[in-house]
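seq:
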Amino acid sequence: MTASAKPHLQLENVSRSFKLKQRLLDTSASTVQAVDAVSLHLEHGETLGLVGESGCGKSTLARMVAGLLPPSSGRILLDGEPVHHESGAHVHMPRSVQMIFQDPFSSLNPRMRIGRSIGESLEVQGMPRDKRVKRVEELLNMVGLAPEHYNRYPHEFSGGQRQRIAIARALAPDASLLICDEPVSALDVSVQAQVLNLLVGLRHDLGLSILFISHDLGVVRHLCHRVAVMYLGRIVEVAPRDMLYESPKHPYTKALLDSLPVPVPGARKGHPHLGGEPPSPLAPPAGCHFHPRCPHVMPQCREHIPEAVPISDQHQVRCHLYT
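struct:
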């Protein structure tokens, strides 16, 4: 990619809030800030990992990028063109952006044969049936399944096979950007490796860009070029994969990496232990959201939101330790 080329995907201060009623007949409502002023970019052919604890806003961000939710504020751009208005009004995403969900069984229609399920988007586009069948058979081969699987139902496949079907369905409309929301977390470890290797091969062969959302840092290290760490709706650190794993800066990132298994019995990584639970998004802490759990908390952490600080050209961190 040339220096003047635009990122495939760009998020500019994207936020999303929800109104929640505490009781059925209650007229008042609380506001949950699920995603808070997130700015990220994804280059063509790159895989960006998005990691963080459950409830930090990863899936909400994924649904906004996929066009399933409009942002409350901010902009989402594809190849430099905005796909949502500033007001948050919904604009349909192009067919080139497709999503792969965590549970392949619930994302497939149990009453629809998989050949029709994969080719449904092609039918909507008006592709003739003979060409549609040929294209679906090509996609089945591409993801490691056989053409004779065309007329089977989802329940006749294993979990790993169903996720392959979901990948084929996402690729059917010539997708160039895949949003993968925990796509292997429901699979056995051996099957996870097969699906991840499939995604790596497809990325290489088709030039795909992938936003890969996961809580499994081992999986992210295997697949991704860069990693963004999310905590309670905010991005706290972004860096190339090797740089982040070898030299993390944010205390939360260090704690996440410390949770990875060490192959040497009794060995420790030396990072401070992360205690406590994430605060409720209904009542997030003032200042830095991480300060109630941070071993390096300072007075300004309780009062001021840290700005993104460049550690290098490719490495940014939001932490008062570096301001």
